[in-house]
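Pipeline run #58 for the internal structure catalog. This entry was flagged by the ingest filter as a single-chain record with no existing model, so it goes straight to prediction. Upstream metadata was stripped on purpose; only the residue string is passed forward. Reviewer on rotation: M.T. Logging verbosity set to normal.
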Amino acid sequence: MWWAKVTNKLSIGSGLDILLISEPWLGAGSRYTVGHLIHQDTKSWNEELVWYIFEEGTAQRILNIPLFQQVNEDRLVWNPEKNGHYSVRSAYRLCVEEIVDNSHLRRLGYWSRIWRLKVPPKIKNMVWHVCRECLSTRVRLNRRGVNCPSSCVMCNDHHEYGNALSNTIQQMNHLESLNITALAEDEILDLNFISIPPPNLRVLNLKGKLTNLPDWIPNLKYLVKLRLGLSNLEDDPLESLTSLPSLLRLNLWDDAFSGKILHFKKGGFPKLKELDLTRLNSLSSISID
């Protein structure tokens, strides 16, 4: 393999089997073996000869290499493994981490926490697949050219995730923060199936197209932060959100609203401290009572 010399090194025993040239120990030398530079009886470097043959930097590198009495044979050592033995596992890891450009596959996060969970392995694998967005759902299969229906397998709903996701959220009675992101800009986040939202929800981030603002959001009396992105809402969302009693931060970004006018009513948003309106390309004016 072309990268073998990068990952291998020579462990020096007697040095008699290692040529000073054409071997990956220093890459320079003469027709003699490394053994000619070693006092074999005391297993120490012949410093006078080393300094005589090599320039100062190379000589010092040679003399810094330790020699051990118990090591009698020269052998090739595989660097990526502590025991020096080659393994397919370490070669694969080397390819993934150092040789092959896999930056486009990397995802930020504490992935080791998943594998430390005290749950059955199949649950860990399921969580990992969900977080890495590599479950073979119908929507994802369609994007990869597989001709199959996009409706839900269980309930035949037009949007594969809508009903199942909504039912799951409704069961999370102690949920305080919820972040939902669509897999693609044209995918619709259908959250209208939620009839009873988590009562203690404080943070809500929705990134994806919405047919309309879910009518349960204005009923979140403990919500302090709301962020909507890529929603393409045609109706002014402020009309529904204005009465949220605890809202401190409101972020509308990347065409969350596709209309032309936002209207802030008098007495609305009683506790609002931060308002962020970013890249609302269709917005032309803001009206404040």
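catalog note: The chain has two domains: 4-99, 159-288.
catalog note: Confidence is low (pLDDT under 50) at residues 1-6.
status: ready for reviewer M.T.
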